[in-house]
Give the backbone structure.
Amino acid sequence: MSKARLALVLLALVALGSCARGGARTEIVIQRFFGECGAVYGQSIDVAAADGECGILTTLINRFEAENPDVAVSVNIVAWPGYPQLTAQIAAGDPPDLVTMHQSVISDYQGRGLLEPMDAILRQAGIGPDQFTAAGRRGVTKAGRLFAMPWDTIGGLFHVNMRLMAQAGLVRDGRPILPRSPAELLDQARRFRAATGKPYLIQSEVNDPASHVRNLYTYLLAQDAIIFPDARHIRIATPQARQIVELFRTIQAEGLTTRNQDFPAASQSFMNGEGGIFPVGTWMIGPYDAEAETPGRPLYHAYAVVPYPRLWGHDAAFVDGHSWVMPRRTRTPAQRDAIARFLRFMAAHNFDWTRTGQLPAFRAVLALPQFQALPHRRDIAAMAATGGQLPDYVQRQSAIQGLIGEELEAAITGMKPVDQALADAERRVNELLAQLIQP
């Protein structure tokens, strides 16, 4: 066949393809964080071969577009967490179609009517709330409606150096022996220090308010404490909160924890075997498990990870999660169909996302043999049921966390009396909420 004839045939095929797709492709705009990795994954559709949050998500979006040639996906990658940019886009009247959003942030936008309820689009996608894990469903339900599709559950865990725990006699049947009360925690921490010469806990205390607040919220939730009685008030100047803060103040005062470390320093301390337990999030399972598989490293074959132990009340975990939300805007039926197809595709690939270390948002994934075969997932799966968040009417949760974190740091390090710090935290948060929400 001559080159001219071949060119005519190719042009005819392109024309037929355009007709088959009904002409122009339907465009949807997806805005996400998780970093930029186009140089490695920009053209990849091999999801199983992708690694890390950026790599897996980039490849999933590429794969969706390849399987849906009538949909053109325009991807905006924003610097974490991306909310200032989203707010500006909404103010300009040109928001994206789908956005990655932390579940704890949804109320900030939903409370001002800036997000579209997603009950209908999820039904169109064939996704029902009964498919979500308990934690995932709680995280996206606001004012009785679904305002997002949950994508995962993230939260604090006890990352454990098993070699040091064994040295302290705190291992049984290959599992760490964890405390079941505040008194037992102190007893184990003191025994650990005496046996190893190292602190029982490694903590990120500098420029990391989430660390102390995660501990406080987790153990208040375990006692069914009413932390926010309404949208304009917090209640943490309580005996329950005082007991929790006093425990961590004692740990600090007795040298049972590392001191004056930010997150990078604390993480390095854990990987270097400088303490027993590092309470930090699900997102660190991958890096620490890699250390555990590296010969010669302190964590080599000596790493375990478990949910926070029950010290008060019942098993509980303060969690958050990532989700997909729809900012309010006018959309065509074709765009809504494309969005529903994208959500259905992402739901079907929720297992792939759990390889990042996060827990799935869909119950069916928890039962998958391939999920249970991932490192440590069986050990932490319960958090998909026990995970809890603040009430759905609480706005500005990140700012609130910063205020409480400052006061907790002052109390735990001895700069303020515990009662004063809790009262100051309560006052400062109430002042913020009073400015934010008018009666």
